[in-house]
Amino acid sequence: MAINILIVDDSGVMRAMILKTLRMAGVPLGDIHQAGNGKEGLDILADQWIDLAIVDINMPVMSGEEMIDRMKEDPEMKEVPVIVISTEGSKVRIERFAQMGVSFIHKPFTAEIVRDTINRSLGLGDDDES
Amino acid sequence: MKAELEEIMFQVTIDTLEKLAFMFAYMGEDEKAWAKDSMVTGTVSFTGPFTGTLVMTISVEVLQELTANMLGLDDAEDVTENLRSDALKETMNVICGNVLPAVTGDEYIFDIGVPEVFPADQEITKGSGIPVGLDLSAKVILEFDEGQCVLSLFSDGKIPKDAVSPEVG
User: Fold this and answer.
1) Do A20 and B72 touch (CB under 8 A)?
2) Does ipTM top 0.95?
3) pLDDT in tens, B91-134
4) Mind listing the domains of chain B with CATH numbers?
5) To the nearest whole angstrom, how far is the Cα of A10 from the nearest Cα of chain B?
6) Which residues in chain B show pLDDT less than 50?
7) Taking CB atoms and an 8 Å limit, are A14 and B90 in contact across chains?
8) Residue A37 β-bridge partners
């Protein structure tokens, strides 16, 4: 089953790294869409079928947090699984992501962590975690 | 405190470089006198329980390889100056984001600013790249086969006294 993924990060290098890591992780990739901020991400979500959104938090124009809030308010977008990839290190903020119903991956990440988090988010296969 | 900060900065940086770019470095002792146009400098500032700026000065050759590895490029010659700047900014973002909770613990909230990369001929000093009022708190030198990377942490000195041990990884 090919997964259509939206990658939202203001760094082109980080978007390329995430895509490279998805390939290394063996994720079955469908259409890949990229956005440089939350507003661009919402525009793509309104036009394209997206199975998974991978979102950074600190971005210009619209932050990842605001983008996720807007997604949760939209009947067409609220069920799209979201994974936040961020350097955020405070327990309070990370817990807020869980309360928003999104998964969290801390930068820097490995292909295994990305794969396992995607599998859990989409309810796919078994990961290597015991 | 300075030795603890430097150990944390070193461990976080080598962990970051390994995971982001499969690059390995060792602790250096002396800052070499490189030609100005052979080094690139970036800064990233933060606020929180203490305020500061992280300055990263890195050999162009090391940054070239770092960028190529981050992007998964076979040929480092495909790396443009824009890509190098983007890679340096993202690397500083990740290092800063990991150093701060390693220093203070995960109970504190920090806001990290937008990283900046400076022209080779601009000297980074207080008032020019480093906010006035900050002093050098820690400095780490990393050696690579291709060159050097120097990380300097400037802060207002108000680091919480309950700094954690440098356990990273």
Assistant:
1) yes
2) no
3) 999 999 999 999 998 889 999 999 999 977 777 777 777 887 88
4) 2-155 (3.40.1550.10)
5) 10
6) 165-169
7) yes
8) none
**Given B19, B96, B107, which is nearest A108 (Cβ)?**
B19
**Nearest in space to B21 (alpha carbons), one of B79, B75, B62:** B62
Q: Output the CA–CA distances (angstroms, integers) from residue B128 to A67, B27, B96, in the order listed.
A: 34, 28, 20
Using a CB–CB cutoff of 8 Å, tell me whether A75 touches chain B: no
| Residues of chain A positioned with their CB less than 8 A from the CB of B15 | 108
Residue A56: partners with Cβ closer than 8 Å, 6 or more residues away: A8, A9, A10, A11, A14, A64, A84, A85, A86
Query: Which pTM does this prediction carry?
Result: 0.90
Rounded distance between C-alpha atoms, residue B151 and residue B41, angstroms: 10
Here the contacts of A32-35 (C-beta below 8 Å, separation 24 or greater) are: A32/A4, A32/A5, A32/A7, A33/A4, A33/A5, A33/A6, A33/A7, A34/A6, A34/A7, A34/A8, A35/A6, A35/A7, A35/A8
Both structure tokens of A74: 């939209």
User: CA-CA distances (angstroms) from residue A69 to A39, A107, B112?
Assistant: 12, 22, 21
Taking CB atoms and an 8 Å cut-off, how many pairs form between chains A and B? 65
* Nearest one of B116, B98, B113 to B166, comparing CA atoms: B98
CA separation for the pair A41, A80 (Å, rounded):
12
Which of B93, B97, B107 shows the shortest C-beta gap to A91? B107
HEC sequence for B58-125: EEHHHHHHHHHHHHCCCCHHHCCHHHHHHHHHHHHHHHHHHHHHHHHCCCCCCEECCCEEECCCCCCE
- Please give the Cα distance from B147 to A70 (Å, whole number): 46
Which of B19, B71, B109 is opposite residue A92, by nearest beta carbon? B109
Quick check: B70 contacting A, CB < 8 Å? yes
**Separation of alpha carbons A57 and A82, rounded Å:** 12
